[in-house]
């Protein structure tokens, strides 16, 4: 049996051979296609780059402060906030203040709340690039020092970075990298004789910072029961995750986390002119944080004269 097949140029066929369409049909429309393609490219380019513009009053740096309203008087908390506000206003920084009770972190020490506080600050200040968390037991003693010139400027940070030192003193196998350039650093903090100290830390906004905070706040670590809670958890992830270590810089303790002098020549002991004084866990050792604050604030007033 034979079936009749339509010819190549049969009008009933849904497919027309290229040869059946006049070449002039395409040549006349080629400029139109090029113009359409150009318009589409321009729309995609400018549409992608014309997102929300950065507000002129958006701060480049934000100070993050957590206060404990359950264990400190309102008067003391106001002194702490004023210490941060005065400094922030002097340098054009933003200020983000929250209470530890604002973050339901579960049955763990309140120190863990610094992590969601940082995430909260980043969402509140979406155009800010640098976040400086400073514990409420720390005092800004030298408000003339800016975070940029004193720490974060690449040429300055290059000189400050402690390279090839154990993460956990004195003999941790894992050490800071020797050759990481300052431009790559996203996380800056200090260490004392016992290890990393997150009571003062600088974090740069970005995907890496989100990864750091998510990993650090993971329930596996938060509920593990580390002896020093979030501090030991941070040491763990820094030592076991090169992704974190490669963007971390340790700076000398007296650069942004000095402690009260005990009369010995300990490295990191506070000296006049230092940026930050950290009173540490004064409540845990029977000291009175509020009285110590008053004493050091009075000393700073004398230095300012």
Describe this structure in words.
- Helix 2 links the parallel strand 1 (61-67) and strand 2.
- By secondary structure, this protein is α/β, with parallel strands linked by helices.
- It has helices at residues 23-49, 74-91, 114-124, 147-152, 154-160, 207-216, 219-222, 229-240, 242-245, 253-256, 289-304, and strands spanning 61-67, 94-99, 130-134, 138-140, 187-191, 196-204, 248-250, 276-278.
- The protein has a single domain, classed as Spore Coat Polysaccharide Biosynthesis Protein SpsA, Chain A (Alpha-Beta Complex), CATH 3.90.550.10.
- Strands 2-1-3-6-5-7 form a six-stranded mixed sheet, sandwiched between helices.
- The model is unreliable at 1-21 (pLDDT under 50).
What is the gist of this entry?
This protein is α/β, with parallel strands linked by helices and 305 residues long. It is built from eleven helices and eight strands.
Chain-wise SSE layout:
Blueprint lengths: L22 H27 L11 E7 L6 H18 L2 E6 L14 H11 L5 E5 L3 E3 L6 H6 L1 H7 L26 E5 L4 E9 L2 H10 L2 H4 L6 H12 L1 H4 L2 E3 L2 H4 L19 E3 L10 H16 L1
Parallel strand pairs: 1-2, 1-3, 5-7
Antiparallel strand pairs: 3-6, 4-8, 5-6
Oligomer: single chain
**Backbone shape:** globular
CATH topology assignment: Spore Coat Polysaccharide Biosynthesis Protein SpsA, Chain A
Helix content: 25-40%
State the secondary-structure class: alpha/beta
Report how far the terminal alpha carbons are from each other. 113 Å
In the sheet with the most strands, the strands line up as: 2-1-3-6-5-7
Low-confidence runs of at least 5 consecutive residues: 1-21
Provide a count of the helices: 11
Sequence of secondary-structure elements:
HEHEHEEHHEEHHHHEHEH
CATH superfamily: Spore Coat Polysaccharide Biosynthesis Protein SpsA, Chain A
Mean pLDDT: 86
User: Any guess at the CATH architecture?
Assistant: Alpha-Beta Complex
Number of domains: 1
Beta content comes to: 5-15%
Main beta-sheet annotation: 6 strands, mixed
* CATH classification, class level: Alpha Beta
| Number of DSSP E strands | 8
Family: Belongs to the glycosyltransferase 34 family.
InterPro entries: Glyco_trans_34, Nucleotide-diphossugar_trans
Transmembrane segments: 32-51
Keywords: Glycosyltransferase, Membrane, Transferase, Transmembrane, Transmembrane helix
């Amino acid at each position: 049996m034979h079936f009749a097949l339509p010819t190549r140029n049969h009008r009933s066929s849904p497919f027309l051979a290229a040869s059946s369409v006049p070449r002039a049909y395409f040549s006349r429309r080629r400029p139109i296609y090029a113009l359409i393609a150009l318009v589409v490219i321009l729309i995609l380019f400018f549409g992608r780059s014309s997102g929300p513009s950065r507000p002129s009053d958006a701060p480049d740096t934000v100070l993050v402060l957590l206060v404990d309203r359950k264990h400190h008087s309102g008067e003391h908390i106001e002194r702490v906030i004023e210490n941060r506000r005065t400094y922030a206003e002097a340098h054009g920084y933003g200020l983000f203040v929250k209470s530890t009770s604002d973050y339901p972190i579960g049955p763990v020490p309140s120190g863990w709340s610094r992590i969601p506080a940082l995430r909260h600050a980043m969402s509140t200040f979406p155009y800010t690039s640098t976040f400086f968390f400073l514990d409420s037991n720390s005092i800004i003693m030298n408000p003339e020092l800016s975070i940029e010139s004193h720490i974060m400027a690449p040429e300055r940070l290059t000189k400050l970075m402690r390279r090839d030192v154990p993460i956990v003193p004195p003999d941790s196998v894992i050490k800071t990298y020797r050759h990481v350039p300052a431009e790559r650093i996203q996380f800056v903090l200090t260490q004392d004789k016992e290890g990393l100290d997150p009571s003062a830390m600088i974090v740069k906004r970005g995907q890496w910072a989100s990864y750091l905070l998510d990993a650090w706040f993971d329930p596996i670590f938060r509920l593990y029961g580390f002896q020093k809670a979030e501090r030991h958890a941070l040491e763990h992830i820094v030592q076991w995750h090169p992704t974190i270590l490669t963007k971390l810089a340790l700076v000398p303790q007296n650069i942004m986390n000095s402690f009260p002098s005990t009369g010995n020549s300990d490295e990191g002991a506070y000296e006049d002119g230092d940026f930050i004084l950290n009173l540490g866990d004064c409540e845990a050792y029977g000291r009175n944080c509020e009285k110590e604050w008053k004493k050091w604030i009075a000393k700073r007033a004398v230095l300012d004269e």
